What we know:
- The model is unreliable at about 1-15, about 15-40, about 50-70 and about 215-225 (pLDDT under 50).
- Helix content is about 10%, strand content about 15%.
- The strands form 4 sheets. Strands 6, 8, 9 and 10 form a 4-stranded antiparallel sheet that branches. The chain has a 3-stranded mixed sheet with strand order 2-1-7, with no helix packed on it. The protein has a two-stranded antiparallel ribbon with strand order 3-11.
- It has one domain (about 30-40, about 45-230).
- The longest helix is centred in the N-terminal third of the chain and has 10 residues, at about 1-10.
- The termini are far apart.
- The protein is of the alpha+beta class.
- Strand 4 and strand 5 (about 115) form a beta hairpin.
Amino acid sequence: MVVGAALAAVVVLPGCAPAGYQQPAADYGNAAEPASNEVAASPGATAEADPESTAEADPESTAEAAPGDEANTPEISEELTTTQLTATKVAKMGETVQDQDGFVLYRFDKDGDDPSKSNCDGDCAEIWPAALTNDGEPSLDGVDQKLVGTVTRADGTKQLTLKGWPLYRYIGDKKPGQWKGQNVSGTWFVITPEGTKNLTCLPKISKPVAPPANDDAGAEESEDSGSDYSY
């Protein structure tokens, strides 16, 4: 009985671990299983940047583009493409994948991973910009090239995937290293370098910010006010 209690104490870890803590990867067998049904929200969970973030380097990694019809793929401007995927640890959350600007990337439970499919379009894509690519070959640092691929979106553009899951940024993240998109709508989660959900820190389910308004002032107000959107 004493041994059993001790083991249970080891298993029950704080929901928000300190910087540098590496949670065992939670893999749901490629099933889109909402984490909110499995894990209670972490008390006081917040999405903050870690000034001491470090990348797990693998500078020689390269990604292979998924096969597709290149002739019918729209060309994306360089400023809209995701050119780098970096495995980086941040405070409380632990493992994340970040783009070339240091912004945390997410996966969406309503997408598909086998086969890959993005179901975030329209206003959803305004809130969760897709990690777009022209050649499917971002620079990789700490991310296994065998897990990186692409999926063709409804508009014909190509989106980077990790272990089959389409990758996104969140406009609610205002600076590199933030992860305010964690558990938004109970369907959006920080993705690990292995393509799994990072559940180390799980805030209560929150609403996404509203899509950007046409003018800058309106956009700033809407993004801070939250919304009733379900994505």
